[in-house]
Design brief:
alpha+beta, 4-stranded mixed β-sheet, 8 helices
């Protein structure tokens, strides 16, 4: 097993679930590939383990209750400049942080491509390689299952260049951001080795980032 594999990570748990669901007696191939894998890959980029923010709470304060948190937009790591500006414009009031009009959660590598790689791993491994199979799928998910928040206009640009469900023809199977490079869509990393908030403080994170670019 690779030393850098985090077996407690959310994406590792997703890899475990995919492998444990593979070829069960009660599940068809269609359901496994187009429901189980597809949905788990969606959760890989939209959910984290964190502290809840009460629904309808205008203050947006964290509670002490841990849960799976939806970060489809608020709390995402990678954003384009235009998307950050759109979010700030949407949430002008101090109490606002959930208004995401005009924004798209965009899978950097289309899920169908990651799904194909996962299925290839599953078909090449047998029951005796259970742990190896999980590790390999975790590696694929960790390296390729990422998302970028873009504007609807930027999303249309990818579509117009026939990159909505495809990677560039010369893709090396490694660079997860190849579609954005091909389309000249610049994105920025909010992480900077710090925790990314998923409550009202997220707006300040974007503001600080915009000032630095």
């Amino acid at each position: 097993m690779q030393e850098n594999i985090d077996q407690n990570s959310w994406k590792y748990k997703i890899a475990e679930q995919i492998v444990s669901s593979y070829k069960t007696d009660t599940m068809s191939k269609h359901i496994f590939e187009n429901v189980i894998i597809k949905e788990l890959l969606w959760h890989a980029t939209t959910m984290i383990e964190g502290y809840k923010v009460p629904r309808g709470d205008t203050k947006g304060e964290y509670t002490k209750e841990k849960a799976m948190i939806n970060i489809k937009i608020v709390g995402q790591r990678y954003w384009t400049k235009e998307a950050m500006e759109t979010y700030i414009a949407n949430n002008k009031e101090k109490k606002h942080y959930k208004i995401v009009d005009g924004l798209i959660h965009e899978h950097a590598v289309p899920r169908k491509i990651i799904k194909e790689k996962i299925i290839d791993i599953l078909e090449k491994n047998n029951d005796s390689n259970y742990d190896k199979c999980i590790d390999e799928i975790w590696s694929i998910i960790s390296s390729l299952s990422k998302s970028v928040v873009v504007t609807k206009e930027e999303d249309k640009k990818l579509d117009n260049e026939k990159l909505r469900q495809n990677m560039p023809v010369d893709w090396n199977d490694k660079d997860w951001d190849a579609r954005y490079k091909e389309s000249d869509i610049d994105y920025f990393d909010l992480n900077e080795n710090k925790k990314i908030e998923h409550n009202f403080k997220f707006k300040e994170t974007l503001k600080k980032k915009l000032k630095s670019i």
